[in-house]
Design a protein that fits this description.
membrane, proton-transporting ATP synthase activity, rotational mechanism, Helix Hairpins, Pyruvate Kinase, Chain: A, domain 1, 5-stranded mixed β-sheet
Amino acid sequence: MENMSSLQKRIKTVQELHSIVKTMKALAAVNMHQYEEVIFAINDYNHTLALGMQALLKNTQMFFETPSVKSNKVAAVVFGSDQGMCGQFNDIIVNYTIANLQEQEKIFLVVGSRAAANLTDRKCPPSHIIPLPSVISGITLTVQDILITIEQWFLNREISKVLLFYNSPIPGTNRYTTKHLQVLPFPNDRFHGLQQKKWNSRTWPTFSLPANELFSALIRQYMFATIYRALVESLISENASRLIAMQRAEKNIDEYLHQLNSKYHQQRQTMINEELLDLVAGYTASINKPL
C-alpha cells in the first residue's frame, strides 16, 4: 500500500499539472478571441477590395488570364500546427487533404511542422515547409512566404492549380470543420454580379492606373486576403481544438485528484483510528493491571 508521504507528493504533482492545464486553456481562449478580431478586420478589407473591383468593372470587362502549363500537378497548401496538445487537429486536415487529392498528381506546401510530419508519415512528403507565426504581426510575413513559393511554382510552370486546405471554425461554437478553396487559377466568375450591384453613392470613384494594372493589383490583394483569412481561421481552429483538449484534460485531472484525495483521507482516517485504538488498548491494559 502506498504511504501517505508518497500520496502527498503525487497530489502536489497533479495539482501543479492542473494549474498548467488551466493556464493553457486560458491562453487558448485568449488567442481565439484575438484571431477572431483579425477576421473582422479581414472582412472589412475584403469589402474595400470588392468596392474597388466594382468601380473598375462598372464600365470595363476584365478577365483573369491563366498561363498555359504542361503540368497537371496540383499545389496543395495545407495549414496545420507547430505545437501539440491540440487533439486530432493535424490528423483531420491531413486526412481531408489526401482524400480530396487521391487521383491527382500533387505537390505540398505545408504551414506547420506537425502537419508536415503527418504527411511524411503518409508517404506524401511536403516540398516546402513554412513555420507558423508566433504572434499576430507575423501572419503577414508568413502569407508573403506562401505567395512567393506559389508564384515561383507557377512561373516555372510546375503546377496548374493551387488549393488551400484548412480547418475553419464553426461560428458560435468551439468546433471546426474542414475546408478547401481554389486560389489559382483565379475563377473569372468570382466577381459576377458586381457590375449590376447598386453603388452606395451618387458619384463613381475614378482611378489613374491603367485598368489592366489596377485589375492585377486587386487580384493580388484578393489572393493575399484569401490566404491570410485561411491561415487565421486555421489558427482559431487550432486553439479551439486545444481548448477542447485542455477542458477534457482538466476534467480527467479533477477526477484523478478527487480519487487521490479520497485515498489520502481514507489512509489518514485509518491511521487516526489505529492510533485511537492503541490509546484505548493501552488505557484498558493500565486500569486492569493489578497493583
